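Co-fold these.
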Amino acid sequence: MKTAVSDESELIDAARGGSVSAFTELVESYRNGLLRFLLTRCATYADAEDALQDTLISAYRYLYSYDPRWRFSTWIYRIAVRNAAKLRPLPTAELGDVAAGTPDPLEQCIAASERENLWISARRLLSREVYAAMWLRYVEDMSIKDVARVLDRTPSWTKVNLLRGRRALDAELNPRRAGEDKAYG
Amino acid sequence: MDELGARLREDAANIEAEVSTELDTRIRASLENVTPAEGEKPQARPVSTWWVSGLGGAAAAAVILLLVNLDRPQPPHVPTDNRPPPVEPLVVLELKAEAAVLTQPLKKELENLESDIRKAERAVREEIGLSL
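Predicted complex below.
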């Protein structure tokens, strides 16, 4: 029985040889996740789609440079981060406040609910890099090391900022507990 | 997974974003027009040519040794003759000294010598015109 890893490496070999269908199959499981991730880093939905397209084209073109010692997801997310950075930035320096009048692509994709989606809160509370680190860690289930590689940061930076992100979101979720924590030092 | 982690995962799943058919078609069309770049893939050397690396390494080592030795500064010339260098003959001073003849006890001899010194000193001072 073939494992997923060997399937992936076979697809990578075929794609390196110029097989578009092999490459399409290879990235099939990453495309939607990448789009959602890019939505948090782009100003509009269209920008996120463009960033996804650029990411997949870059990955296909430079597949020869992929090092199998890395997870493929780590490599492709790293490309996505770079491509998103090339596009027009969000209206504000940080993700927290999207300028009035500009439809927030992330909010557009979240169905109305009684409570606020935690990722919307995260955008309000966290910096762009910490937000991305939280996403990669908790949604994409990446290790600290892989998150650090994607964001081009050190594992120490990643650990510290994941902890900060968690504290900020915990305080948002449990304001009473956060108040007690502050009171007791 | 802890509560916060589970909540983050759940809320991420509530973000409804999927690659549309239109975007998928656009991406496929773009990929068809792209040729994968060919990088330098590390090629394994055939087993039959194992000696190439060995000989190459040996030749490189020999060249490096040669270059290092050529560049090394020449040490100063050391004569191979083990004979010691010629030594200048010692100059022997001729001292006008007389052996002391001790005829009395030592204390008396010391007093006599001191008296002789004083006499000699007085004589010298008189000669050069100094008075005591």
